[in-house]
Structures are given as structure tokens and as C-alpha cells.
Amino acid sequence: MKSALAQRLRCGSFTVVLVCAFHSGAQAEPIPVHHVEGTVHGFLVLRTEEGRVLAVGDLSQVVRDEKVTSRLLFRFKDGSVDDETTVFSQGGTFQLITNRHIQKGPSFPHPVDLSIDARSGQVTVRSTGKDGKEVTTEHFDLPPDLVNGLILSIAKNIRPDTPETKVSMIVVTPKPRLVKLAVSPRGEEPFSLVGSPRKAMRYEIKIELGGVPGVVAPLIGKQPPKVQIWIAGGQAPAFVREEGPRYEGGPIWSIQLASPVWPDLPRSVF
After folding, report:
1. Where does the chain have alpha helices with state H?
2. Would you state the pLDDT for residue 270?
3. According to DSSP H, which parts of 24-181 are helical?
4. Are 157 and 94 spatial neighbours (Cβ–Cβ below 8 Å)?
5. Across the chain, how many H-helices and E-strands are there?
6. Residues of 218-253 as b/e, b for ≥16 C-beta within 10 angstroms?
7. pLDDT over 50 (residue 219)
8. Exposed e or buried b for every residue in 49-64, given b needs 16+ CB within 10 A?
9. Which of 42-56, 66-80, 141-155, 221-235 is least confident?
10. Is 214 helix (H, G, I), strand (E, B) or coil?
């Protein structure tokens, strides 16, 4: 009985751990745009809890009118790839248009290729299992608060005095399923920038398990860990760090900004 329930609760992956759940009937509202996204190319590093570097990442964004195309790409030392491309609009609220997320290679026990067309409601999952490749396509009545590929943008636009913000996400279970995320600010925490003290707001993301999975998961040790995101506030909020698993049952990994190192320049301390 226990193993059967555990099997039913197995899920795929995204920027946060993916889990099986039933979609909440609560009203879905898109997140207002307080800080418009612009053209960006940032450098990231993905590490283990012990600090070992697993992958180097690039976050690139281009803007045309109110439409933004964002790509987050991690290349792992073992040859694995975590590649997510998101197209969204930001005309007053954040609205997902399309999202594609690919995870493959030795670092991902269950490789997956997830595609979402938010306007048509078509969701396609291409996975590779023991029996070869499998393609699953389903139609959803997708809510306006869908945040696949938008977690970092959403976190930068949540007011620190808002107790909780609920948004929706498509996950892989291995079939696509709609779930809820609860995002809550947990106070400012210190960090330093070349020795200069700064502070960042920590946001906690809880994956809500509805229905039977929500009751059973804690009993069989399948309650998903919470994901943490740190945002430096001010007039131009900036992502600082993310911590959590990137696939179901995976280890806790940390994503942080990376700084270029020039071999002919000494490292400075503020």
C-alpha cells in the first residue's frame, strides 16, 4: 500500500520541485507588474549544499513591445542540460504566452520536455522511459495566474508586506497537472557584496498538495520541501539566490549570481 501511494505521488520537475496535486478552486488572478522586465544577460552558478559547482548558467531576456522572451540555460559539468524558454507579456499584469522546459542528462533521473501554449491551453510532455519516448498532449483551461518560467519575475513583483500570494503552475506527474504555489515573504536576511553589507528579502514557496495526496504525503515522507528565493529590494529589485530541489526527490541545490573573474586583475575587498 505504501509503495503504491508513493508511486502515485511521483512527479516531474521545474524551477521548483514538482508534485502531484489537485487544482484549488480559489480565484486565480495574474500578478500586477510593479517592475517592468527589460533586456538582460546575467551569469549564474548552480551549486550543491556543500558548495560544489555543478553547472554554469546564463539568463538572457529580450523585450519587444510588451512581449518578453526569457531563457534560463544551465550547462552541467557532467553534460546535463536544464534549458527553459519562456515568452510572456507584461501589459499591466504578467501573462504567460508559451513555456518550454527541457531537463536531460545524468543529473536528471527522469528527463522531461514540457511545452505549454497558454493561449490555446495545449500542454505537451515528451519523456523518455524504459519503453522509449512517449508524447502526452492534453488541453487545459489554464488560469491567468500561470507562472511556469516566471517565478523570478513574480518574486520581484510581490510586495514584501503581502502575507501570501497564490499562483498556478503546470507540473509533470508524468502526465501534466495543474497545481498551486503559495509564495510568502519571510523577512530580510543579510548578505555581502565584495565585503559590503546588503540585505535581501527571503520568499518561501510552498507547493500545496490538495485532495488525497495532501493528506497522505506527510504520512509516507513525500511532503515536498519548500523553495527559498532571495530578492534584493529597492527601486530595481534583483534576484540574489534560489535554494531548493530542481526535480522531484532531488537534492537541495543553490542558484546564485556569478561574477566574471579576470586572470590579470587582483581580487578586491571592499
Report:
1. 2-8, 151-156, 211-216
2. 55
3. 151-156
4. yes
5. 3, 14
6. eeeebbbebbbbbbbeeeebebbbbbbbbbbebeeb
7. no
8. eeeeebbebebebeee
9. 221-235
10. helix
Grid cell of 250 as nine digits: 532531488
The confidence band for 8, taking pLDDT boundaries of 50, 70 and 90, is very low
Round the average pLDDT of the chain to a whole number and report it.
Answer: 84
111 pLDDT exceeds 70?
yes
Name 59's Cβ contacts closer than 8 Å, sequence gap at least 6: 40, 41, 42, 43, 44, 70, 71, 72
Q: What is the rounded CA–CA span in Å between residue 231 and residue 195?
A: 18
- Exposed, middle or buried, 13 (CB in 10 Å: 0-12/13-18/19+)? buried
Would you call 19 helix, strand, or coil by DSSP? coil
Which residues does residue 127 pair with via DSSP β-bridges, in sequence order? 112, 134
Residue 93, C-alpha cell as written in the block: 499584469
Q: Which three cell numbers stand for residue 28?
A: 486565480
Amino acid at 209: L
User: Which residue(s) pair with 108 in the sheet?
Assistant: none
Q: What is the DSSP string of 22-59?
A: PPP-SPP-PPB-SS----EEEEEEEEETT--EEEEEEE
| Three-class SS state of 219 | helix
Is the peptide bond prior to 174 cis by the omega test (within 30 degrees of 0)?
Answer: yes
Cell of 141: 483551461
Q: Which amino acid is at 41?
A: H
**85 alpha carbon, distance to own chain's centre:** 12
Q: How far is CA 85 from CA 82, 114, 211, 254, in A?
A: 10, 11, 31, 20
Do you find a cis peptide bond into 163, omega within 30 degrees of 0?
no
Q: What type of residue is 132?
A: G
**Structural domain spans, the chain:** 2-257
